[in-house]
Specification:
The chain is an alpha+beta fold. It has 2 domains: 121 residues, no CATH class; 85 residues. Helix content is 36%, strand content 26%. The protein has 6 helices and 8 strands, in the order βαβββββββααααα. Helix 4 runs antiparallel to helix 6. The protein is extended. It starts with 14 loop residues before the first strand and ends in an 8-residue tail after the last helix.
Length: 231
């Protein structure tokens, strides 16, 4: 049995509701009825629906009626829950809305629905983490994240790897309204980040090769074979 811990689910993998986003768009005002859709992208293909939700605003709660689609079998299932909301006065006037988590009753700003689950709860109840926390100590993952952020600033949304970033950046024309110096700075940032990612990936391959070499030497020693690297 492996001693490694199973990685936690990250918030980036979940469908979520942000009450601040809903409040700014007037979706909390009764008797407002709104609809939100989620989607995901596979490589260069068009966005595919991952689910939708209808939000019916009540005086002290939101009624969530949502359909979740399983992309593997195209199966749809319907659910309906009431989530209490509270308004907390701010120090300098106005109010700030919060969800009340249906499970632990914490006041939270976001509710999450992890993959293969059907209900919305807070990050604490699902024991979620952030992708950046899991990347801690992984130089290649950090370099990849930097490249992805640089690509997004330049308007490249379908980044997959450093080679893809090079190609997309070369082919991209300066967006209308963007200053030339800004475009050149963002352009350089993409190339520099992609170079760091490529170097980090080389280090990963080098470390893997060294581990395999040590393992092969150990196996040859156990079998009594002569190590060919020793003269």
């Amino acid at each position: 049995m492996s001693g490694q811990k199973r990685p936690k689910t990250t918030v980036e993998e979940c469908l979520y509701l942000d009450i601040g986003w809903l409040y700014r768009r007037g979706m909390l005002t009764p008797p407002n009825i709104s609809t939100i859709s989620w989607s995901y992208t596979i490589f260069e293909q068009e966005n595919r629906s991952a689910g939708s939700i209808s939000i019916f605003a009540l005086e002290t709660a939101l009624n969530l009626s949502y359909v979740v689609t399983n992309p593997d079998v195209a199966e749809k299932r319907e659910y309906s829950i009431n989530v209490p909301i509270v308004y907390v006065p701010c120090n300098y006037g106005g109010v700030r809305p919060y969800f009340t988590c249906p499970d632990c009753h914490r006041r939270v700003l976001k509710l999450y629905k992890p993959p293969s689950h059907v209900k919305f709860s807070c990050r604490h109840c699902w024991d979620l983490t952030y992708r950046s926390c899991q990347d801690s100590g992984d130089d290649h993952a950090r370099a990849r994240a930097r490249t992805e952020r640089a690509c997004l600033k330049l308007g490249i949304k379908d980044y997959r790897n450093c080679e893809n970033a090079y190609y997309k950046a070369y082919a991209l024309d300066r967006p209308k309204g963007m200053h030339k110096k800004t475009f050149e700075r963002l352009h350089r940032a993409v190339f520099e980040a992609a170079n760091r990612e490529e170097e980090a990936y080389r280090q990963v391959l080098y470390a893997f090769a060294k581990r395999m070499e040590r393992r092969n030497r150990k196996v040859r020693k156990m079998l009594g074979w002569k190590d060919s690297s020793v003269s």
